[in-house]
Amino acid sequence: MAMTKKKLRLVKTDTPPFWVKPAIPVLALIGTFIITSGLILLSNANPFETYYYFLFAPLGSRVSTLEILVKATPLILTGVAVTFAFATGYYNIGAEGQLYAGAIAAAGLGVALHGVPAIIAIPVMILGGFIAGMAWALIPALLKIKLAVDEVVTTLLMNSIMAYIVSALLNGPWRDPASGWPQSPEISPTAMFFKIVPRSRLNFGFVIAIAAILILWIIMTRTSFGLKMRAVGLGKPAAKFAGISVNKTILIAALVSGGVAGVAGVAEVAGIQFHLIGELSPGYGYTGVIIATLGSLNAFGVGLAAIFFGLVDAGAQTVSRALGVPVYLGEITQATMLLVALGMLLLQRYKIRRM
Amino acid sequence: MELFLVNLIAATLRVSTPILLAAIGETFTERAGILNLGIEGIMFFGAFVGFFVADASGSLWIGFLVAILSGVLSGILMGLLSVSLGVNQHVSGLGITLLLTGLSLYLFRLVYGGRSTPPSIEPFQQLTPFNDIPIIGPITQQYFLTYVTFLVIIPLAWWILYRTRFGLNIRAVGENPEALDAAGVSVYLIRYLTLGIGGGLMAAGGAFLSLASLGAFSHGIISGRGWVAIAIVIFGNWDPIRVMIGALIFGGTNALQLRLQAMGLQLPIPYETFLALPYIVTIIALVLAGRNASYPAALLKPYKRE
User: Nearest 5°: phi and psi at A46?
Assistant: First the structure.
């Protein structure tokens, strides 16, 4: 055989075939399925059955479908929060702590506003949560722009500090006097978010989350500030050269980011728990980073990614109840999907050639 | 007072050990240009793997070695993403942390889920080489791994970074990868090697907590120590000796708060203030060191051969 051996090679391309972009989420899902199925087998469950419960069973009934949106609410908000910061090139990984700052404000105000009508109480709580999240984001932001201290590290450390503040409140002044549980007293009924759909947990928080997506989209695409944010995100020296006040832009983006994360905390307290509890967030702040990335820092992409992750969260609980697979499969699936998708996004830039 | 100080110094060395191991690991990866935010998850996974394997095999050392292996593999996974694929290091590192945290909790639930009491093992014993001598005796009563960390790992890390060809290549790859590539050294290989070494050290830090400090594994076993390690690396200006000083400051604050808690003082402030103190001190230390921090020039920048 006189054939020359041909090898498959990856060749760089600027024009990926049209089917690549829509295929990436599907391929990422299949890749994630293959990788996680080993773990599912370890827990003596059938991967196909597990994935049925995971991805389709939550869509089976009205209540469980709405529950996906309930789970998506904090994820949309933290995803939007992270997007504000990341798009500006400010790596705020402190959404988790900022969420709890907002939750503390909501739990405090929610009790203080006893007897105040909902039309005043609810806006006050949202505003209070926004300001609290902003305040918690202020320290790393100022350290960054005034003293050039790396924000990645400080925002992460601030998360740990916030966890102890929450613990101090719940084991100290806010410990429930009746039950002795480490949870704050119940907030006023007028401060609780109203249900959008009766006999479900879907509440006003979801409306806020959708509004956050729209506001993010408008700011990013329709305002001069959005243009500044993206310019700073793409390169600080160039942005400075173009006459943009880089530090001011970063500061505002960081504060809005913290504020939105704070509202996520308000939505959990006022819409779901009605108390501050230590386990309010199973890491929504960190998942927000994944969602912002999978959504390509685009407002609607963030919304879609968050709703899909809401499905995964709801599905993980269904799987855990139905098949006894540990609920952490949800986290593993989300993280695996991120890593697989990151790898695949790069494949866009290549095509396979025989040469 | 003397007893208090002696106990404080002894506890500082103990508490610093896991952070220091992880911080030295991160020093290597960052010197080569990779910020590995997977550190928190790699420590957590190392703590779990060490505990599980030690429990299953009946040998603490087998557990410790397999934990290190898990860290090396995690480091290579980070390399696959950040070196070979050139993905954003913040996102890939955080993704690895989330993956390994979820994976550890998943496997822990699978293996030990049915038990009513949390599982535990008999942890490493402390060495008592100078038992009879006052002051020196209690201070030198430490785990073998603490001795190894301070007397072997730190000098070795310094020697490798500043006195070997490999160390020169690591530093060069973090400052000017193009030049190293032009000199015929593989940038990818150096970065993979440092990520492997770094991952192994991070996992060793995690396994120290489960196999020496606690003899158990729990959800809060790492609780942000990985992030502290990253702060300490910046504070230490990417130099093993200064990183050690940073770890001792954190460890000292932590040991102090443990001592104060143990004394059972009735203070008008919640005990969580003490728990948060080391993190606050770390931020302050970072601010003080921040002006002089000289980041590796190629940190966060994926290398692409054109």
Answer: -85, 125
Q: Chain B: nearest CA to A226, how far in angstroms?
A: 22
* A157: nearest CB among B37, B85, B282: B282
- Of B62, B33, B16, nearest to B302 by C-alpha is B33
| Mean pLDDT of all residues in A107-134 | 96
Residue B258 pLDDT more than 90?
Answer: no
CA–CA separation, A19 vs A41, rounded Å? 33
The tokens of A325 are what? 């697979």
DSSP A196: S
Q: How far is residue B276 from each of residues A199, A324, B14, B281, measured CA to CA in Å?
A: 41, 37, 19, 9
B267: DSSP letter: -
Tokens of A124: 């006050």
**Residue B106: other Cβ atoms inside 10 A:** 23
Segment 63-102 of chain A within 8 Å of chain B by CB: 91, 93
Could B98 and A287 be called an inter-chain contact, meaning their C-beta atoms sit closer than 8 Å?
A: yes
User: Which pLDDT does position A1 carry in this prediction?
Assistant: 45
The Cα of B135 is separated from the nearest Cα of chain A by a number of Å equal to 34
Tell me the backbone φ, ψ of residue A350, rounded to 5 degrees.
-125, 160
DSSP state of B120: B
- Distance between CA atoms of residues A1 and B201, nearest Å: 52
Cβ distance of A157 and B231 shorter than 8 Å? yes
b or e along A160-183 (b: 16 or more beta carbons within 10 Å of the residue's beta carbon)? bbbbbbbbbbbeeebeeeeeeebb
| DSSP β-ladder status, A350-354 and B126-127 | unpaired
Reference A78, options A58, A98, A61; nearest CA is: A98
Q: CA B104 to CA A61: how far, in whole Å?
A: 32
User: Are B272 and A286 a contacting pair at CB < 8 A?
Assistant: no
Residue A2 has pLDDT above 60, yes or no: no
The confidence band for A300, taking pLDDT boundaries of 50, 70 and 90, is: very high
Domains of chain B: 2-111+139-290 (1.10.3470.10)
Question: In angstroms, what CA-CA distances link A296 with A287, A345, B97, B211?
Answer: 14, 10, 20, 41
Which residue of A lies nearest to B104 if distances are taken between CA atoms? A328
pLDDT tens, B175-214?
999 999 999 999 999 999 999 999 999 999 999 999 999 9
Residue B303 has what DSSP assignment?
A: -
Taking the C-alpha atoms of residue B242 and residue B291, their distance in angstroms, rounded to an integer, is: 16
- Tell me if B276 and A161 make a contact (CB, 8 A cut-off): yes
pLDDT for residue A305 is more than 60? yes
Q: Is A106 helix (H, G, I), strand (E, B) or coil?
A: helix
CA–CA gap between residue B129 and residue B136 (Å, rounded): 9
Q: Strands, DSSP E only, in A126-258?
A: none
Residues A79, A69: Cα–Cα separation, whole Å: 14
Q: What is the predicted ipTM? A: 0.90
Measured in whole angstroms, the distance separating CA A144 from the mean position of its chain's CA atoms is 23
Check the CA dihedral A290-A291-A294-A298 and report its sign: negative
